[in-house]
Amino acid sequence: MKIMHLRRFVALAEERHFPRAAAALGIPLAALYSSIEKLEEEVGHPLVIREGETRLTKAGELLLPEARERIAAAPAPVARPAGPSGGKARASKGKGRAPVVKGQPKPYKKRQGR
Fold this sequence. Notes:
The protein has a two-stranded antiparallel ribbon with strand order 1-2. It is mainly alpha-helical. β1 and β2 form a beta hairpin. The termini are far apart. The radius of gyration is 29 Å and the shape is elongated. It has 4 helices and 2 strands, in the order αααββα. The protein has a domain of about 70 residues: Arc Repressor Mutant, subunit A (Orthogonal Bundle).
């Protein structure tokens, strides 16, 4: 079982509400739903009753203490290093300058009459 899935399950078990748990974790609601579904597939039993008020099933109640133990025993998540400041350099989207050829007018200017 992935620690990430267990953390999300514990947050859901504490909040008993999918949108509040997703907001507390700082993740999209769809990511929370998919994490819980993957955990349910791995365990082989439904962990949460989604109808009406969200609550844990018997399997979910049995998994909760074990999930907390595994989270406590796991190493702390590694913080990602901050990326370099500034943005990525981009090439100009304009046409640029055409090469100068003697005797021919520039492509964007009209020829002057004499």
